[in-house]
Amino acid sequence: MSEFRVACIQTCTGTTPEDNLIGLTSLISEAAREGAEFILTPETCNFMPQNKQARCATMLPESEDKVVKSLAALAAELKITLLAGSVILAGDGDKAVNRSICFNSLGEVVARYDKIHLFDVSLDNGERHSESAHYEAGQQAIIADLTFGKLGMTVCYDVRFPALYHVLASHGADFISVPAAFTKMTGEAHWHVLLRARAIETGCFIFAPAQVGIHENGRKTYGHSVIVSPWGRILADAGLETQTIYADINTEQVQMARRQIPALEHGRHFEPPA
């Protein structure tokens, strides 16, 4: 059993990494003062680009990205475990990667996860997204070994693919991170339902820090960062404000939920329809 305090930071990220870093540093430092030992930021926390040209001109490889370097140093300074929910970085080819990075209290990278499922859609309101045109998809599920337990790492659109979450839970995850920048329309319809379902199906805590508001690039994000128990109960919800939410976590609740609903043990192989 492990007990710790978690914090999920909700931000409205802009287009300039330097400005975003100032805001992140302040919020992370405040969360540490409030006793949080594990702090998570949303998806695309280093910057949200105006367009392809701006993204290409701004993104850097991980080894050169100032936000990544600064967050690593901040984790060491504050002696916290810190998840950069995701950062936009230059990939090996022409495309970017949407990468979640977890730092330990020494500022060392303990795990990296590149978003597997990419969001390509044209919405009824005229909004369009084509992540696969700009980003390289990740290829591997990742679990980070933390002092509190095992963290399964996902990003945003991954939440719609329960098979990934089942794999993470089956391989020992106690909690799963879902940093996101959900659109306002889809968030209102699906966000809470999906996160509670993933928690209930896996018997894991869900930590979901999110973007909120109207961003400089015109995107509208839903907010409602949440922390969900393994039983599917929402422990904290940030609503539509730029703020940080907290919860005190006891990992015994993971085993308790799985004893009461041992669904992970009851899956059976079956043939698809003819």
Compact summary:
By secondary structure, the chain is of the alpha/beta class. It has one domain (3-263): 4-Layer Sandwich (Nitrilase/N-carbamoyl-D-aminoacid amidohydrolase), CATH 3.60.110.10. It has helices spanning 17-33, 52-58, 66-78, 162-170, 184-202, 252-260, 263-266, and strands at residues 3-9, 38-40, 81-90, 96-103, 109-114, 120-122, 128-130, 142-145, 150-153, 175-177, 205-208, 212-214, 220-222, 226-228, 234-237, 244-250.
Structural features, described:
Pfam families: CN_hydrolase (PF00795). With 274 residues, this protein is α/β, with parallel strands linked by helices. It has a single domain, classed as 4-Layer Sandwich (Nitrilase/N-carbamoyl-D-aminoacid amidohydrolase). The chain contains seven helices and 16 strands. The chain has a six-stranded mixed β-sheet with strand order 5-4-3-2-1-16, with helices on both faces. Strands 8-9-10-11-14-15 form a six-stranded mixed β-sheet, covered by helices on one side. A hairpin with a 4-residue loop joins β8 and β9. It is globular, with a radius of gyration of 18 Å. 43% of the residues are buried. The model has no long low-confidence stretch (mean pLDDT 96).
